[in-house]
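User: Second chain of the day. Same drill as before.
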Amino acid sequence: MTSWLVTGAGGMLGRDVVSVLGDAPVTALDRGALDITDPAAVWAAVAGHDVVVNCAAWTDVDGAETAEEAATAVNGTGVRHLAEACAQTGARLIQVSTDYVLPGDAGQPYPEDAATGPLNAYGRSKLVGERAVLELLPERGYIVRTAWLYGEHGGNFVATMLKLAAQRPSLDVVDDQLGQPTWSLALAGQLVALGRAAEAPAGIYHGTATGSATWYELARTAYELTGLDPDRIKPTSSAAFPRPATRPGYSVLGHDRWQAAGLAPLPAWRDSLAEALRRPAFADLLG
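Assistant: Same format as last time:
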């Protein structure tokens, strides 16, 4: 039976991956149990496992602007340690990456082989990790880029919008960034399916929901689906919320490569959002 290692298992996505694996043999290590910047610890953790799903990451996008070396130590060098260990043991590695490795200036969905060009330090740090996997695991390394994640565990945009509904009569939400809201539990299922697809070709996959929306459209839809008045959400521009890290204006990814793995892409974002919002953790936010 396939033995799994999930790193970053205490985070939103990591917890969902462990949940999806259910009764499968799995070692779930959170940040306190495994520091992926420690090569000896990584090698010890990887030993004896067939598939490694790396959900460990530096996720503070704005913080990376002033701490790029620290972000790259986790998102780049740490991933290299995992890839080196997997290359030695024969394990397969599924590395969770990001749309931020792309320039964000396209007008149609980015294919998996699109040229990279990060706009910020976080994106650059994640690209270092991608390159390590492609270099060291050309036959057993899988990069799954995702974006706009929300879920039941940890802070995220959807949860924030629902919490603020009880605090503010209206909310200004950015309407000039286009992306693909992606439910972490749905992505977790896709990662596990990829790990179980023994004949899936190695390389880059895009793990985002199908369709696209702006943050404004996502917030309105979340309100509609939970019985709140969507007109409380007002559109604004990114300029109204200046951030240290530049955000891409276009983060829509194509999903053609899943066919080669014998898998369907993730469902439409509206369908996943509707399913997610029926779960207790989101319902509880509404009181």
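The chain has nine helices and twelve strands.

User: Great, on to the next one.
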